[in-house]
Amino acid sequence: MESGPQGGATQGWRRWLDQPEIPRALPFVLFLVLTALQGKFFSGSEYWLYALKTLLAGGMLWALRGWLPEMKWAFSAEAVIVGGGIAVLWIGLDGRIPSLDQLWGSVEKLVTGKTPEPAKPEEPWNPLARFAGNPALAWTFVVVRVLGRSLVVPPLEEVFYRSFFYRYIANPKFQELPLGIWHPVAFVATSAMFGLAHPGQWAQGIICGAAFQWLVLRKKRLGDAMLAHATTNLLISGYAIATHQWRFT
């Protein structure tokens, strides 16, 4: 039996994590915060921050796996097909649909009659160019990026969006609901939120979120959506590396 300040602190952490919202949202929030900090410290810091957030989020998911029983990978043909289809769609629609910034600029011009100043384009994520003098380090960042997008991001986002957010909209006591429950408001809201989280590819994001949610509804488990998500990200990453179109990473 644990006793004393250390034991009390441990029990406090466990009681805090026993609140079902916490373990499902905490890794996602940490990932978002570190994403917002990328590139804010020094030139090239975005690469180091990405590696850090991948390690921290992955470690947190592993540490919290006992609180996340639904976070289990599952294989199905539907998951692979959906993941591959979304990858093709994501790449194929690139540049064909205005980003949210472009849409907002059009609305602003319509309302004010003034053409807004174009936003300064972000430097594309390209470690091979940024660390051209150190190929080993550059490829290390490429590998970390691919592994992060394929193994860490899928469970992190699927647990948050599909397990927590979707069911919470349907019922704040979301653990009482099965993963495969159909709720039209939750379906639309979750798909829209997933799209808004990708402002440059918001339309692809909405379709993607809806497709992954469909898998959860069909299979009544999270693992197929995790696999589809991983398949999509892995294929897009492979395309970006093969064609040197780093904006897809």
Alpha-beta content class: mainly alpha
Main beta-sheet strand count, sense and barrel state: none
Q: What's the count of strands?
A: 0
Quaternary state of the chains: single chain
Report the end-to-end length measured between terminal Cα atoms: 48 Å
> Uncertain regions: pLDDT < 50 for 5+ in a row?
none
Rg result? 20 Å
**Percent range for β-strand residues:** under 5%
Shape: globular
- Bin the helical content: 55-70%
Average pLDDT over all residues: 90
Tell me the number of helical segments per DSSP (H or I, 4 or more residues long). 10
Order of helices and strands, N to C?
HHHHHHHHHH
What would your notes on this structure say?
There is one protein chain. This protein is mostly helical. The chain has a domain of 143 residues. 69% of the residues lie in helices and 0% in strands. It is built from 10 helices and no strands. It starts with a helix and ends in a 6-residue tail after the last helix. The mean pLDDT is 90.
